[in-house]
């Protein structure tokens, strides 16, 4: 083999090597670079349309639980003052405990716009005999949008929707802490893949316990609470329960398009085990989520529900019942 032929063969092998690397590996960027860009991008997200699936199975001697949760969720935080959310949640499962079995299903919608909270109970079923007593109260609420009286919105929930300058500053500090802290270690590269027509990096990860400990402690300080080393160590033990973690990150935009986390524990000798699996799947980011109040809704006050006297009152948008009409009805 002459020198020229050898040079051509070497160049061909180099080209093939880098071609295979680009197709099967993580392209020209290292996993560390991609993860850092993912965090930089995540902290600036203002709106998201995504779904989550949660599956839980557990056994504790004679007791066991098996349920699934699915949610379609839209969040719009582009206006710090009036935040919006729209969620459709379905829960179904079985619980066997103390020799009794509970089998049920729940399907509900929630919509929030600033301090206004709406909910729609689509389905509620349970095989518990006591549930029959609640049916006369619950049935009138089903498949109708209800506007929750503002007096009954917990203060903690209001704070999530209405942010004062001090809270917004704390949020900004927590975002920066998230970006600067190494919370994940890439332990496997699956290569570049296609997900919903988008090219993505697919990684297997592990939680960095030192990073989680540091983040937990510093986050507590930002929120005005001092955390001891022992408390931070205990919080970091969460990492030991994670049996699998994977992320699919956009090659061009570094958005998280899919995430899978599985937590589990197993003690066969004592017949105790548990497994929780969470799957996140994104549709879009930072686009108009089009979250508006329901076209028709009724005013809902939990006090009347607890008293078993819930009498829906139509909103002004759908021909509201006036106070005078209500008084006449009560007089009759």
Average the pLDDT over all residues and give the rounded result. Answer: 82
CATH class of the domain at 27-108 and 161-295: Mainly Beta
DSSP summary: helix tally: 9
Structural class: alpha+beta
- Strand proportion, as a percent range, falls in 35-45%
End-to-end Cα distance: 109 Å
Major β-sheet annotation: 13 strands, mixed
What is the H/E order? HHEEEEEHEHHEEHHEEEEHEH
CATH architecture annotation name of the domain at 27-108 and 161-295: Clam
**Widest β-sheet, arrangement of strands:** 7-8-9-10-11-1-2-3-4-5-6-12-13
- Uncertain stretches: 1-26, 309-332
Assign the CATH topology of the domain at 27-108 and 161-295: outer membrane lipoprotein receptor (LolB), chain A
In short:
This protein has 332 residues and is α+β, with helices and mostly antiparallel strands. The chain has nine helices and 13 strands.
List keywords for this structure.
disordered N terminus, outer membrane lipoprotein receptor (LolB), chain A, 13-stranded mixed β-sheet, 332 residues, alpha+beta, globular, 9 helices, 13 strands
What does this structure look like?
By secondary structure, the protein is of the alpha+beta class. The protein has a domain at 27-108 and 161-295: outer membrane lipoprotein receptor (LolB), chain A. The chain is 29% helix and 40% strand. It is built from 9 helices and 13 strands. It has helices spanning 3-24, 31-42, 135-138, 155-161, 165-180, 209-222, 229-236, 302-306, 323-331; strands at 47-60, 63-76, 84-97, 100-113, 116-126, 145-148, 184-195, 198-207, 242-250, 256-267, 272-285, 298-300, 313-314. A 13-stranded mixed beta sheet has the order 7-8-9-10-11-1-2-3-4-5-6-12-13. A hairpin with a 7-residue loop joins strand 2 (63-76) and strand 3. Helix 5 packs antiparallel against helix 6 (209-222) and helix 6 (209-222) packs across helix 7. The radius of gyration is 26 Å and the shape is globular. The relative contact order is 0.15. The model is unreliable at 1-26 and 309-332 (pLDDT under 50).
């Amino acid at each position: 083999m002459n020198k020229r032929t050898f040079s051509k063969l070497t160049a061909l092998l180099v080209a093939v090597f880098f071609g295979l690397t680009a197709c099967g590996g993580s392209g020209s960027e290292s996993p560390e670079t991609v993860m850092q860009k993912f965090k930089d991008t995540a902290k600036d997200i203002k709106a998201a349309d995504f779904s989550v699936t949660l599956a839980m199975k557990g056994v504790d001697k004679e007791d066991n639980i098996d349920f699934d949760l699915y949610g379609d969720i839209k969040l719009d935080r582009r206006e710090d003052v009036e935040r919006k959310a729209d969620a459709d949640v379905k829960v179904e499962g079985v619980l066997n405990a103390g020799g009794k079995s509970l089998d049920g299903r729940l399907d509900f919608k929630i919509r929030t716009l600033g301090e206004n909270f709406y909910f729609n109970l689509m389905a509620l079923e349970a095989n518990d005999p006591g549930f029959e007593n609640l049916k006369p109260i619950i049935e009138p609420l089903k498949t109708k949008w209800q506007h929750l009286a503002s007096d009954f919105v917990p203060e903690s929930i209001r704070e999530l929707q209405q942010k004062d300058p001090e809270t917004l500053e704390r949020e900004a500090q927590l975002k920066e802490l998230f970006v600067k802290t190494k919370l994940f270690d890439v332990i496997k590269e699956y290569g570049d893949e296609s997900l919903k027509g988008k090219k993505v990096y697919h990684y297997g990860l592990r939680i960095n316990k030192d990073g989680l400990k540091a983040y937990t402690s510093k986050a507590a300080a930002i929120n005005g609470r001092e955390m001891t080393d022992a408390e931070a160590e205990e919080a970091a033990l969460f990492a030991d329960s994670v049996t699998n973690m994977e992320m699919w990150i956009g090659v061009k935009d570094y958005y998280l398009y899919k995430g899978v986390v599985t937590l589990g524990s197993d003690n066969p000798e004592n017949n105790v085990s548990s497994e929780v699996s969470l799957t996140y799947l994104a549709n879009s980011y930072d686009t108009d989520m089009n979250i508006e109040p329901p076209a028709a809704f009724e005013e809902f006050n939990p006090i009347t529900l607890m008293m078993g006297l819930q009498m829906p009152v139509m909103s002004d948008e759908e021909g509201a019942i006036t106070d005078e009409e209500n008084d006449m009805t009560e007089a009759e």
